[in-house]
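User: What would this chain look like folded?
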Amino acid sequence: MKLLSVNVGRPEAAAYTDAPSGVTGIDKRPADGAVRVTDPGPKGTGGSGLAGDTVADLRHHGGSDQAVYAFAREELDVWERELGRPLANGAFGENLTTSGLDVSGARIGERWRIGPDLVLEVSSSRIPCRTFAGHLDEKGWVKRFTRAAAPGAYLRVIEPGEIRAGDPVEIVYRPDHDVTVALEFQASTTRRELLPKLLAARDALHPEVLRAALKYVEKEGADG
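Assistant: Here's the prediction, encoded as structure tokens.
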């Protein structure tokens, strides 16, 4: 398991973005050399965990629980074949393009060591938005990406560090529950009845996902 590239996005104007500023950083390109990764701080004020990377819409993206976004090269290759066009590392707006790692099959709360120092913790799936759809410029993209249910993972920074392309990725902790990123994605999008299953991951869940699961269970209990 290794890191193929570390991708950062510079701010650019785009008509398709949801950001109030009209600016987006979704067009991420592989960085040359090492990139420092740290906890960016709370959502709403903190952006990306990667130095030099832009998160323009702080209402919906960035912050400690979405500090880093990872996507598997193997999944990009699947989409290349389906879309009939090349997809470079970073094409889905991911910060980390990995090889040999089942990113969507990772468990919520799972921890990865990348390079000598950086430790990340899997927190949630990526939910497709209008900015993502506009960036890919594919008809019906949000529905197609959702149907595939291989969303890639957001991660929080547990121990900061510098990383670069070629660094090994090691799973240093895997919780004993079975709540994967793919399961959390389905529960948060098309299969809300799965939300109670997410509570097995409890505090490792993204706070917004945890609240949604608890609300669903409370409502089901009241209705029952």
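The helical segments are 73-83, 130-136, 141-148, 181-188, 207-223. If you want, I can go into more detail on any region.
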